[in-house]
Specification:
Chain A is α/β, with parallel strands linked by helices. Chain A contains 26 helices and 25 strands. In chain A, helix 6 packs across helix 8, helix 6 runs parallel beside helix 11 and helix 18 runs antiparallel to helix 19. By secondary structure, chain B is mainly alpha-helical. Chain B is 60% helix and 7% strand. Classes of the chains: A alpha/beta, B mainly alpha.
């Protein structure tokens, strides 16, 4: 650089003079200044990207957990329907109880086997044919078939499930494995119906075999579109190599979860004739999956986590198949307590609010509406929930709306603040919302000490009842739920996982104690999506492993698996399934993910439109159509009840007026109905948008013959029940009108898919794209 | 005068809320602390363009006497408020950015070679880590020619910045 006498050549081989060289490179001081400037500017750009990435992640997580709240809502609705079956005529309730209560198969195993064998497979079927016992050629055939989008015939599915059930019955609750000499065990986390991820793992790591043993840690189904294919492969390999393929149960191996999160629907769609039978069989198979795996007596693998009550010895001895679903408490025989549900209106507060003699807290008021007798709140909770009974009144129980500054974050980690430890973990947090009429939930064991008296409504007054010790069945249920639903937290102690509604938050001390007690060194679990596919916490004693890449959106996260050899030192392998051949830049990935998240938020806003508008207008005293950013954020947060960085999101959600205030109408500009909707009031429309998924599930259940039609009467009844359950004021006449208007050919039945389509919220840009073809 | 005081307070209040919102995004444990390594991101996302040296100074100010690896909101808020109110670490306008690139591109080719840019970014000023370099190249470089057309790059980056 700039040296007086030296000569050099440029890239064309011509000699340069020093003069030319001086021009070629900037002076060092200037170069440094320029470089710093560029670096400064670029780092700022990256920081913005990181911020967007982070809050996009927060959005997805919030919505996911809010969805899980909805799930509990739905589950409690089913209970509600069951408990009120006298209101429904027809076969509706039988169907639901059929699906929700344990079913006793009238046929023996042998008879079942024969029945399946007699199912004919048509000549036209070109997929794999299975015979048992399976061989490698069968699993290879399955792999090829699924890569070619060729499904497996229902008969083979049934037989596969049947054989799996037989195999699982022989297995203990806790599987003990040893690391084979000179080989490693591969441990995978949640797959959630992502066939591509499973195939990628097999491709990178090898197919299951004696050389390549696997443990799959639950959540094989739901959310993804290929749950059926995923479990077929997993079960097939397990039948092929029962010693080298271990499957743990996850919280989604649960038929009630499946109703909401897509597995049930997928099965019904892919197997029109045998879907129902398959689902019933799957229910059994899921409940027979082992709940834990232990490697070399040193490494514990469970899907969710543990609690301070986790007892591995007890767990080894329970009847795990009795825990059909985490979302239905085992029914207690409470004959003497089967109080008749008298009138639903005008009843005093839910016993839960009163049971511990606490004053009714404002929390019990439903949002935005005048104080009504219902103590119901829609699934999305006031997160400060006193429902975690058995807990001392903690700061959590402060109701929303008070003291905003101090209110603990209304998110799943809520319980981490304030009370750091609690004496007993309640893994039973009953499903929220509604049905204050169902007694079994009130009498949950963990909540009450033996000497408590419970106040329950009885014919419009209160009766004191002595409380019994919880039966063994419930204790067992709780132990299993803890394993499948818990999450680690960073602060010590153990508290109920009020967010998920089941399981606990367990701190590093809980982990340490449990591992010490059993002479173990490591807990591997899944259950939570992690951006890098895995995460280590609790001083290296807990690893979260998650194997569904792009879980929330293309580019949202990597998937990973662990390899564990004799030394029991985990090695992590990451991957990401990509639809594009060219790797997306960070910018592109963030844009895609953020776009998707923002859309989800816009949908939420749209489906709460009237409530939001009413609240906005309260602040808009001058009727200008604008309110301040603060007010906007306040309103949105309190109505939509998602703990999101609203201010940061604001530019994506609402327009600013010239004076810096927010034009609140602009929130709703980009979204609209997909099709012209039937004549309904805005309120009703919104309710339908909001509960579309739930309704879909219910309709599908009622539609026993999968015709896509239900009778007007069934529609009416379902709707009445649902709205009564939610406490939504729905005009009976409006529903009737709606029903009639949907019944286009006037034959007394409704095509509910068409109906539901009308209430799908779409992004207007998408609609335009579609229209343009 | 009272009015001015009120509006001044209102401004400060807005600033506080903005800072809080950005802080919260990284407060993973909901205990009003963030990892010190995220402070740079938070400050930058609030519209500031500190260089690394300036960033370290700010962090030194808000860290505990015995650094814990975490920054508490109570300490962050006053410092950050001052930064924003005093408009420290102003943004770099687009034309200045262009000039910076042009300084490096003495020959006025309109682009920089891969090696050139890499050398400057990883050896001069406050050097990039390899990761940072790779990321910049993936966004800025034309992969077929291994050239960085910085004019387009600067425009693209500035457009992406919603304000």
């Amino acid at each position: 650089m700039g040296c007086g006498t030296s000569v050099t050549t440029d890239n064309k081989g011509r000699r340069l003079t020093t003069d030319q060289m001086a021009k070629k490179t900037p002076s060092p001081a200037l170069a440094m200044k320029a470089a710093i400037l560029i670096q400064r500017w670029y780092r700022r750009y990256i920081a913005r990207l990181e911020m967007r990435q982070r809050y996009t992640w927060n959005i997805f997580q919030s919505i996911e957990y809010a969805g899980e709240q909805d799930q509990l809502q739905l589950s409690s609705f089913f209970s509600f329907m069951l408990d009120n079956f006298t209101q429904l005529n027809g076969n509706g309730p039988d169907l639901i109880s059929h699906l929700l209560d344990p079913v006793v198969d009238p046929w023996s195993d042998r008879e079942r086997q024969t029945m399946f064998e007699q199912i004919t497979v048509p000549e036209s079927y070109s997929g794999p044919h299975l015979t048992f016992p399976l061989t490698v050629s069968h699993t290879n055939a399955l792999l090829s078939a699924f890569k070619e989008q060729q499904p497996l015939h229902g008969r083979y599915m049934l037989q596969l499930l049947h054989q799996t059930k037989k195999l699982l019955k022989q297995m203990p609750n806790v599987i003990h494995l040893s690391t084979p000499y000179a080989k490693e065990i591969t441990i995978c986390g949640d797959l959630h119906g992502r066939l591509d991820d499973l195939l990628l793992i097999f491709y990178k790591n090898g197919l299951p075999s004696a050389e390549t043993p696997y443990v799959f840690n639950g959540d094989f189904v739901d959310r993804g579109k290929k749950s059926v294919e995923v479990i077929i492969l997993l079960f097939a390999y397990q039948l092929l190599y029962p010693d080298h393929m271990t499957l743990n149960r996850g919280n989604h191996e649960d038929h009630i979860m499946n109703l909401r999160y897509g597995f049930t629907k997928e099965v019904m769609q892919k197997y029109k004739t045998h879907g129902r039978d398959i689902l019933l069989l799957v229910q059994d198979v899921f409940s027979l999956l082992p709940i834990a795996t232990v490697i070399d007596n040193k490494v514990l693998i469970v899907h969710g986590g543990i609690s301070d009550m986790t007892d591995l010895y007890l767990l080894s001895s329970i009847e795990r198949h009795k825990v059909k679903s985490a979302l239905r408490l085992p029914r207690r025989s409470l004959n003497h307590l089967e109080v008749t549900r008298s009138s639903r209106q005008g009843q005093p507060e839910s016993p839960r609010c009163r049971s511990r003699g606490q004053p009714e807290s404002p929390r019990c008021r439903s949002r935005g509406q005048p104080e009504s007798p219902r103590c119901r709140s829609r699934g999305q909770p006031e997160r400060p929930r006193c429902r975690s009974r058995g807990q001392p009144e903690s700061p959590r129980c402060r109701s929303r709306g008070q003291d905003h500054g101090n209110t603990p974050k209304k998110r799943r980690h809520l319980t981490r603040q304030g009370s750091s430890s609690s004496s007993s973990s309640s893994s039973l947090c009953s499903p929220r919302g509604s049905s204050r009429l169902t007694l079994c939930r009130c009498l949950s064991p963990s909540m009450l000490s033996p000497t408590d008296n419970l106040q329950v409504p009885f014919l419009d007054s209160f009766t004191a009842l002595p409380v019994r010790q919880p039966p063994r069945e419930e204790l067992e249920w709780k132990q299993v739920v803890d394993l499948l639903w818990s999450d680690p937290k960073s602060q010590p102690g153990c508290s109920p996982n009020t967010f998920r509604g089941g399981g606990s938050y367990f701190g590093p001390d809980v982990t340490r104690r449990l591992l010490e007690r059993h002479g173990m060194t490591l807990l591997i679990r899944s259950h939570e999506c992690k951006q890098e596919g895995y995460e280590v916490c609790h001083d290296g004693q807990v690893i979260t492993i998650f194997s569904a890449s792009n879980y929330y959106e293309e580019g949202s996260n990597r998937g990973a698996y662990i390899k564990l050899g004799r030394e029991l030192v985990p090695r992590f392998f990451q991957y990401q399934v990509s639809r594009n051949t060219r790797k997306l830049t960070l910018t592109q990935r963030v844009n895609v993910a953020e776009g998707s998240a923002v859309r989800a938020v816009q949908e939420k806003l749209f489906s709460h439109r009237s409530e939001l508008m009413a609240a906005f207008q309260q602040y808009d005293t001058s009727n200008s159509g604008c309110i301040s950013v603060s007010e906007w954020a306040l309103v949105v947060e309190s109505v939509v009840r998602l703990d999101l960085p609203w201010r940061t999101l604001r530019p994506r959600l609402a327009r600013l007026a010239p004076d810096g205030s927010i034009d609140y109408q602009s929130c709703f500009e980009d979204m609209g109905p997909g099709q012209p909707i039937p004549q309904v009031t805005p309120n009703l429309a919104e309710t339908l948008y909001r509960y579309r998924t739930d309704l879909e599930i219910i309709f599908n259940i009622m539609d026993k013959d999968h015709s896509g039609q239900i009778s007007i009467e069934e529609f009416r009844q379902t709707w009445h029940l649902f709205s009564a359950h939610l406490g939504v004021e729905v005009d009976d006449r409006a529903i009737d009108e709606l029903a009639k208007s949907i019944d286009f050919n006037k034959d007394g039945s409704i095509d509910f898919n068409e109906f539901l389509e009308a209430f799908r919220v779409v992004h207007k840009l998408d609609v335009k794209d579609q229209q343009q073809g | 005068m009272a009015e001015d005081k009120e509006s001044a307070e209102a401004i400060v209040s807005e600033v506080h809320k903005k800072i809080r919102a950005a802080f919260d995004v990284f407060d993973h444990e909901f205990n009003k602390t963030v990892d010190v390594r995220e402070i740079g991101t938070i400050i930058r996302s609030l519209g500031c363009f500190p260089n690394e040296g300036e960033l370290h100074d700010v962090i030194a100010e808000i860290e505990e006497e015995e650094p814990t690896g975490y920054i508490r909101f109570e300490k962050f808020l006053p410092t950050m408020t001052k930064v924003l109110m005093e408009r420290k670490f102003r943004p770099i306008p687009e034309d200045l950015m262009l000039q910076a690139f042009e300084v490096l591109d003495k020959q006025k080719k309109g682009h920089l070679e891969l090696e050139e840019l890499t050398k400057y970014m990883t050896q001069e000023g406050e050097p990039f880590t390899q990761e940072e370099m790779e990321e910049m190249l993936s966004a800025a470089m034309d992969p077929d020619k291994n050239l960085i057309f910085y004019k387009d790059f600067v425009s693209m980056m500035t457009v992406d910045d919603p304000r």
